[in-house]
Amino acid sequence: TCEIICLEREVRDQSGVVTDSLAIQMQSIRDLSDVQVKATSGLRRSFPLMIHYRTDAVALPELPVRWVGAELRALLSRRNRRSKVSAYLTSASELRRRLRVRRRTRVLALLTGKDDELEDLWGSQRSPLYAALRGCDVALTTGPTYSVCADTPRVPASHNTLMLHGRHHGIVHALGMQDLCAAPNIYWRNSSDIEAWSRFLQQNNHIAVVFRDFSRSKSRSSLAYHVDGLSKILSAAGRSLHVLACGVGPAGAEFVMRELASVRATCTLVTAHPLIMATKRRRYVITSRGIIYRRSHWSAKCLAVVNMLTMERYLARIARTLEGY
Q1: Cβ count near 198 (within 10 Å)
Q2: pLDDT per residue over 171-186, tens digit each?
């Protein structure tokens, strides 16, 4: 089946009945103004400067952290072309054991991942996942990152509209209806979406925490473009908000923190970078130019701890020069 949703889309079952089409997909469309989000103001002061994820990738000791992230790949497992709730979500204690953190650590469920993982999320029965998140005492879940590209003949506006207004808005609303706290994922197609997000935040003062996935902004110019759009939305909200910024490594950390501080927003970096570099035998070193990486003979376990602590010191140094931290 073609992954692009367009006017010509028509999927039939063995009996010839149309099971998927643009008209069927359009039924999932939800206007942003109709999305209900549970209050997150009580969580804001609990966030550290950095939340690690992929903590299960290295044989770490139990980490004494306040928050930890769990990616979609840890929340859903796929067998026989069908997705179901993973073994990580057996219980609250089992989830934290597998993530290598303490029992009282708060968990951030990251609905981010590869396109096939996100398609599995959309195509699965999501009610069991929501129930498992609630049963495992997951403190906050992010809005999913469904790809939005420039409108072209290859990727028509219908596809992008459904990714944002259908899938993202629909899942965030469902989380709220399931009494789960969600951080809306602030991304957009055009200036109309930017205006809609601004109105949404203005009208929902109980929302204190939002999410933004920068993992596809590989260059500084791309990062700057998306931070600028996010800053416009946050500024229009008329109050200080906290941003969970995913996919920002040491190279972009100071830029993102300072730009968001200019619109009175604080920031937590949600990253696996220190752990990824540890598996590549790279050690973080703070210099006058920021963090650089040096090859090391130390074990991945040792480097992971060193990199995490070094990154935290680096972020603390930046935060001391900014208001709101």
Answers
A1: 17
A2: 899 999 999 999 999 9
Instruction: Enumerate long-range contacts of 223-232, CB under 8 Å, 24 or more apart.
Output: 223/248, 223/252, 223/255, 223/256, 224/255, 224/259, 227/255, 227/256, 227/259, 227/260, 228/259, 229/188, 229/194, 230/186, 230/260, 231/259, 231/260, 231/262, 231/263, 231/265, 232/194, 232/198
Q: Is the pLDDT of residue 160 over 70?
A: no
- Going by C-alpha positions, the residue among 164, 57, 73 that lies closest to residue 116 is 73
Across 139-166, average pLDDT? 63
Is the C-alpha dihedral spanning 200, 205, 207, 209 positive or negative?
A: positive
* 222 vs 110: CA distance, rounded Å: 22
Tokens 């966030």 appear where? 47
Give yes or no for a contact between 282 and 253, defined as CB atoms under 8 angstroms apart: no
Rounded Cα distance between 33 and 99, Å, is: 36
Q: How far apart are CA 53 and CA 67, in angstroms?
A: 9
The pTM of this model reads: 0.88
- Is residue 25 within 8 Å of residue 162, measured between CB atoms? yes
Q: Calculate what percentage of the chain has a pLDDT beyond 90.
A: 66
Report the SS3 class of residue 78: strand
